[in-house]
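[scheduler] slot 2 assigned
[scheduler] job type: sequence-to-structure, two independent chains
[scheduler] chain ordering preserved from manifest
[runner] begin chain α
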Amino acid sequence: MAIDKIQSESINLADNFAFTGTVTGAGGANTPFFQGRLNADQNVSSGSGTLAQFTADLDTASGWDSSNYKWVVPSGQAGKYYIGMAVNGSSSSNNSVSWCNIQIWKNSGAILYSDGKTTSGNSGDMHVLPNFVSGVFSLAVGDEVKFYATVYVTGGTPKFLGGSASPTVGTIFKIIE
C-alpha cells in the first residue's frame, strides 16, 4: 500500500530528510550583492555628515557608481534588500571621539539612522568608536543607496578608519523579490 498523504502530526520536524526529487522554492541567490569599504582612512569634518567614499569589494550587478559613491538598483532587480553599514570613527588625538552616527539614504532621504556614544578610553589610544546599523527595505529599479556617517571629536582630525584592520564598510544584498 503506497502512502499518498502524510499528516503533519505524523512527521517529526526535527528529523533530517533526504529528498530524491527536486526541491523548489527553497533558498535563493541573494544577488545582486554589493560590499564596499574604505581602503584607507577618510578624513572628515567633526560634526558634519560625510558620504563614505567606498571602493567596491564585490558588486555582482555593477550597481556601484564610484564617482558619486552610491549604489543604484539595476534593471529587473526590484525587491526587498538587506542594507547595513559599519563605521569606525577615530581621531588623531587621544581620547577625543565623543559621538558617531550613521545614516543610510535611499534616494534623497535617510531611511536608517543610528547613534553611538563613547565610553572613557585608555590614555594613549585614539579612542576608536565602532558603530553598526542594518535593516531590510523595499527598493525599486533606479533607487539610489548612499552611506553617510558623522564623527564628533573634541580634538584632532576626525576620520573614518579604513583598511583591513578596522574597516568602515557598507553591504547591500537582495533577499526576496
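[runner] end chain α
[runner] begin chain β
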Amino acid sequence: MKYSLYLGCVIPNRYPGIEASARRALSRLAVELLDMDGASCCPAPGVIRAFNMDTWLALAARNLSIAEGLRADVITLCNGCFATLADANHILKHDPEAREKVNDKLADVGRSYKGEIEVYHLTEVLYKEIGVEKIKESIERELPLRVAVHYGCHLLKPSETRRWGVVERPTFFEELVEALGAQSMDYKDKMMCCGAGGAVRSGFPDVALDFTVEKLENIQRVGVDAITNACPFCHLQLDQGQMEIESRLGRKFEIPVVYYTQLLGLAQGFTPEELGIYMNKTSPTYLDKLKETWTAGQEVPAAAGIEDHGSSNW
C-alpha cells in the first residue's frame, strides 16, 4: 500500500514523535508513505473555514493537488486535517462551480485540482485496509495495559461524508487497541470532545480546560494505565492540557497520554526512544508496567530495548 503522508501543523511543531512512530509502525505493515513536499496547513476546519469558505477550499485543494501529483491517496494522522481535506475533497468533487473557482485561484501558483484521489484517516487505513488480524500478526509482544480510547470529534462527523456507518457508538478504535493485547476501558461520555476544538481552545481557554477536566475525571474513575488517541490536537489537549490544569487549577491527574502508533510500535518491538514516547509531556509510567510484565513473564525480543537508561526510562 502506498499513501501520500499529510502531517499537518501540530505534529512537526509539537509532536515529531508521532510522525516517527507512524513511519515505523506502518512500515511493519508494508505501508509506503510518500512525502508531500510543500504542503501547508490543511487549513484548520474550525478556523479558516469559519471566516472564508473560498480561502479554505483553495488552500485545501492546493494540498490535495500535491497528493495528486504523487498519484497516491492521502493518509492523515490528525482528525482536523482529515476533516478539512476529506470535506473539501467531497465538496470539490460534487460542486463544479466551487471546483472552477478554486482552480482559477490555483492557476496563479501553477496548480490545479482534478479530484483524482481519496483522503483517509490513519485509523481507517489500519482498520479497513490493513485489518485487525494483520495488525495482530505484526506484533512481537502484547501490551497488558488498561487503556482509555479517545475518538475525537472530526473523525466521525459529519456522518454523511464519513465512511464509518455507526458514529454514535463506534467500536473500531477499541478493536485496534485490543489487537495489541490491551484492554479498552469504557468510561462515561467517551464520545465527549476533549476541549481542543479550534476557537474554543484559542479564544476560551477556561472553557476548553473545563471540557478536559471532565474528560480526565471520567477516565480516572475507571482506572487506566494510559489514554490513547489518533489526533495530535486532541493529544495536545489531553497531554499538555494536564500541565495547564495543574498550573491554572492546581489539580494533578498524571494520566499518561500516548498516540496509537506509539502503542502499536511498542507491541511491534520498537523502543520508546524510536517512537518518540519521551517527547510526550505526561510521564509514560505504563512503560514500568510493561517492563515488569515482559521481563517476568515472557522472553523479550532483542529489539525491545528494555535495558535501563535511568529511573524514568527503560
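[runner] end chain β
[qc] chain β: The longest strand covers residues 2-6.
[scheduler] slot 2 released
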